[in-house]
Structure formats: C-alpha cells, structure tokens
Amino acid sequence: MIVEVDIPPRPFNGGHIIFRVDKPIFDLEFTELAELKKRIDMAIMIEKKKLKPEGFNIHITDTEIHIIPRWCGDINVAFFGGVKVIPLSIDDIRDMIVKELQFS
C-alpha cells in the first residue's frame, strides 16, 4: 500500500489534508488498514497540537481519506464572491502538517 499525503487544490478549511492510497480502501488487507489508521491518527494528533481545532470531519472515498479540521463558527457557506476565506495558506499547511507526515 502506497500512501501519499497531499493538500487539495481547493481546501475546505485550513489544515484540510488528503491521504491517497494506491488501491481501493475496501480492497486493503487488515494490516494495511491498521497502518493507514495509524497514519490518520498521527495526522489528527499533529493537527490537534498545531491548529487546535474543535473537531474533525473525515470523508472517505474509494482511494482517498480527507481529514478536515473544524472550529466553532466555521460554516459550509462562508463564501464571498465564490471565494472562501481560509486563514492558512496551502504552503502553511504543507510546512506545518504534511512535511511531518511524509512516509518512506
């Protein structure tokens, strides 16, 4: 199982990261799922320490897991002119979170 950690081009919130695996999640072996869970737990631990969110949304698709930190007051429709205001840049998140989650 190859896991890549990335930031979506249009993140929902600051800290929104994506784990991508090389085959469908439902086809992973138990040991692969356990390793993926450890990596997700590590990401959440890092985000809790650095970003201090009040909770997380976790969205799972066929080959992706989205980790989206949430804070009281952030809303799904906080858009102005089609642009959502996110206080952290993609580079900020890459430096603060993703670099710590690079796996060999």
From TrEMBL:
Q: Which Gene3D superfamilies match?
A: HIT-like (3.30.428.10)
Q: Which InterPro entries match?
A: AP-4-A_phosphorylase, HIT-like_sf
**Entry protein name:** HIT domain-containing protein
Give the originating organism: Pyrobaculum islandicum (strain DSM 4184 / JCM 9189 / GEO3)
